[in-house]
Amino acid sequence: MSNPNERQMIADKVRAVFNRKEVIDALTDVVCNAISEAIGQDGMRSVLNMPTFTTPPNYDTENHVFYIERGEGLRPHVHVEKGNKIAKFWLDTPDMKKAIKDRGNMNDSELFDAWKHVNANREDFTKQYRTYYPRPDKPQQMPKQQQSKTQKKKEQALPKTKSDAKVNVTDITANGCTLRVRSKDYYLSFVSGHPYFLGVPAEEIKQVALLHDSLRWKALDIYIGIDQLEHPRRYPCLIITKTEYERIQNVLKYPERYPDIKFTKRQRESLQCKIDRIAEHWQKNNFNQ
Question: Cβ neighbours of residue 256 under 8 Å, at least 6 residues apart?
């Protein structure tokens, strides 16, 4: 288009229909799709500086691809891609429930298959991760006497107000409880969202601590992120241990033993379906937690 006037007229008409952000987003999608089709996913990862992990020569990855993204911090992790589905796992724990950072668009079965490969190569992936993100050198510690003086100064500088990092458990019933975290209330439903608390004594439920952005029940080995409380629909996957599975089965199988727990018919059927699917998956993969 050689005529500048024609070019300007068309540009004005486009801006009249779309705002600038929509145009930029649309063009970005077109360019990214074109580049992806031309050089493939491996090429895209290379262009975006996303190193791909390698597995042992005889190891069958079942078409899974493992890679990391630059600039995501020093905690070892891996992104797992299969087809157009991606999930993210931490590499510093062998516990699947704690290792899932982002399930992405994978269903329960795909998530478990991805974790199976990650766990099998966890140590090797961690070593490869450290080639890109070496451990930082530990800072030199001050002498204990000087350290205690510095700590006292810091404590004196803090305002004498009640900490907002405290977590309280109130209104505990057989069906749920209310959590007050950082001056905000959340309702924790045992029947629908968090069945691993079913049948647990109230005293054990009260023993909860706030660690950064997660709630931890140490005696029960349960972790729940604050984001999971604020956006429960983002976390539809139910991940439980063998002990929790057996406790939930008892609640469903012997309702007369737990008269205080009230299920609707739909809640009971939904929960039974979820744990049956988990048991079937365990049996299929010879998996025992």
Answer: none
Q: What is the CA radius of gyration of the chain?
A: 25
Which helix (H) or strand (E) segment holds residue 176: the answer is strand 176-181
How do residues 116-164 score in pLDDT, each as one tens digit? 888 888 888 888 888 877 766 555 555 655 556 666 665 555 444 344 4
Q: Is residue 7 scored above 80 in pLDDT?
A: no
DSSP 177-197: EEEEETTEEEEEETTTT-GGG
Contacts of 153 (CB under 8 A, 6+ apart): none
Nearest to 222 by CA among 204, 202, 203: 204
Dihedral-angle region of residue 244 (phi above 0 means left; psi in -120 to 50 means alpha; beta otherwise): alpha
Summarised one tens digit per residue, pLDDT across range 230-282 is 887 777 766 677 777 888 888 888 888 888 888 788 888 888 888 787 778 77
3-class secondary structure, 259: coil
Give the other-Cβ count within 10 Å of 267's Cβ: 15
Strand-by-strand arrangement of the 85-90 sheet = 65-67, 77-82, 85-90, 100-102
Which tokens belong to 254? 């012997």
Q: What is d(CA 237, CA 32) in angstroms, rounded to the nearest whole number?
A: 31
CB within 8 A of 73, min separation 6: which ones? Answer: 133
- CA 152 from chain centre, in angstroms, equals 37
Tokens of 191: 């029947």
